[in-house]
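Section handout 9: paired folding examples.
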Amino acid sequence: MSISYEAITVILIVLIFSSILSIVFKNKEKKDKGSVFFYYKLSYRRKFIRTLWTFPVVVISLVVIYIFAGLNSNETLIISISFLIIFLIQLFYNYLKWKKYE
């Protein structure tokens, strides 16, 4: 399994964009009620809730990858485990931060 230059480019763009938004909204007031487009404007409680809402998206993404990517079972398993580990880390991080600042 090799990562293409396009995948590396997309990953770098996402990391750079995420870092910029994180810096821009670092010391801004966080919103705990209402609708917010930017994830970085949310309180940790709202980030936790939004992360829970993304679980169906993770599952659907994994199914789509399994059906359309044409990967073997080992590659699919590695991608699935990676998605789930990242999801769980984000979920627990937001939960711990929420409880710390509550």
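Moving on to protein 2 of 2.
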Amino acid sequence: MSEHFNIEIVNPEKSFLSKENVSEVVIPAFEGEIGILKDHIPIISFLKPGIIKVFTGTEEENYYVEDGIVEFKDNSLSILTSSIFNLKDIDNNHINNSILEAEKELSKDEIDDQKRFLLNHKVEVLKSLSIN
């Protein structure tokens, strides 16, 4: 019996990723990192800035995501996001510019606590990427 499930990641431009042989996905949910395997209980959650890890066999693909909504049911994982990048395709200039933009937003007095939390988390994740 197969231990795999389906994943589809969609952003505003297109269907970003669609696979049928996924063995595990780790997502950066508001509740913390969630590991999803076949037959996981149905969930709906929001994403925070972080890394989505997609495992297929012996391969691991990593994607940086800004935000989004995740739904898992009937062994199908759907992720809707406004911003996602394959870590293989992202360069340090893009990461550094994103850090500067987030820090500029953080310096504003009128942002609320939730936005401040998300921006701080975004900066933390992006700084960890620029080190690697």
